[in-house]
Specification:
Blueprint: E1 4-9, H1 21-34, E2 36-40, H2 52-55, H3 58-75, E3 81-83, H4 86-101, H5 103-113, E4 126-128, H6 129-137, H7 139-143, E5 154-157, H8 179-186, E6 190-191, H9 211-227, E7 232-235, H10 238-246, H11 248-255, E8 263-265, H12 266-273, H13 291-297
Parallel strand pairs: 1-2, 1-3, 3-4, 5-6, 5-7, 7-8
Helix pairs in contact: 1-12, 3-4, 3-5, 4-5
Length: 299
């Protein structure tokens, strides 16, 4: 039996050939080393983070997540629900708080879930994978499997806004969370504690409706990383990763800049540090190649 077992909610972006499939690849490799068993929630549905605020009422939006919770409670009793996507985690946490506090609302949600033969009982905690690493393992335990320290690589820890507010990671400052810096140190790399853009929104919600505003955010995030001598940005959020990586070429085309900053996931750093290959770390899934990390993985 695995050391730790969780009901896994992968979310839409981590599916095969989706935008964050390399995040899932590296997470699986990292979890194998740490003896973590992630069991996918059977028949899970989208959390609704990208559309439900505009296209559905409050009950509909929260019932989407209540269904996932109920499925986890039914098929994987006693296990915490774990998400790797910051948007999924934030949306699920909001739903859980609403359902658990408002008993009348919970009753309405369960009335809707009856149609699927399900009932939400409020038993399963909801965690981001980062919370699992920090709270259930701790930095010292995470450092023990390191066989290939990421020495000589400097990372700007870009937390973004979704794992920071309103819930945040336990014990962390909203203004200056340091868990990514600590994870970077854990794998033997160099963090940039003074990186001032670490909790700035990447503008993902504005990427299509107001691209100039979104791209201004991205340019600030990337240029600040350059200013501090970073080799790469590391993030816990697939939307931040995609937005900050993908639009650098568009900013270059429009503004004459020469941005080419790789944007990686913490799980990729850990996989490489644990001795994983570039493929196991999902390093083949980037538009801007993280060459220093790839080189280290190939040794």
């Amino acid at each position: 039996m695995a050391k730790k077992q969780y009901a896994f909610y992968p979310g839409c972006s981590s599916q095969l050939k989706a935008s964050a499939s390399n995040y899932l690849t590296s997470t699986n490799a990292m979890c194998k080393t740490l003896d973590i068993q992630l069991t996918e929630i059977p028949d899970w549905n989208c959390c609704g983070a990208s559309i439900s605020y505009t296209g559905a009422g409050e009950l509909t939006r929260h019932v989407l997540n209540a269904r996932n919770f109920a499925l986890a409670e039914k098929h994987l009793p006693g296990q915490s629900v774990v998400a790797t996507c910051a948007a999924c985690w934030l949306n699920a946490r909001e739903s859980k708080e609403k359902l658990d506090v408002d008993h009348d609302f919970m009753a309405k949600a369960n009335e809707a879930l009856k149609e699927a033969g399900l009932q939400y009982q409020g038993k399963a905690p909801v965690k981001h994978m980062v919370e699992v690493l920090i709270e259930d393992f701790g930095y010292e335990a995470l450092a023990k499997p390191v066989v290939k320290p990421l020495e000589g690589i400097k990372f700007a820890g870009y937390v973004g806004c979704q794992t920071n507010r309103p819930f945040g990671i336990a014990g962390e400052s909203f203004e200056n969370p340091v868990y990514l810096d600590k994870l970077v140190e854990t794998v033997g790399a160099e963090p940039i504690p003074e990186y001032e853009q670490k909790v700035t929104c990447c503008g993902g919600a504005l990427a299509f409706s107001e691209p100039d505003k979104s791209q201004k955010q991205i340019r600030d995030i990337v240029e600040a990383a350059y200013d501090h001598g970073a080799d790469m940005i590391v993030t816990p959020c697939p939307l931040c990763q995609a937005n900050v990586e993908v639009y650098q070429s568009e900013i270059n085309r429009k503004q004459g800049t020469r941005l080419a900053m790789p944007v990686t996931y913490y799980s990729q750093l850990m996989t490489v540090a644990y001795g994983g290959s570039a493929k196991e770390a999902g390093l083949d899934g980037h538009l801007i190649q993280p060459t220093k990390l790839q080189a280290l993985a190939g040794r």
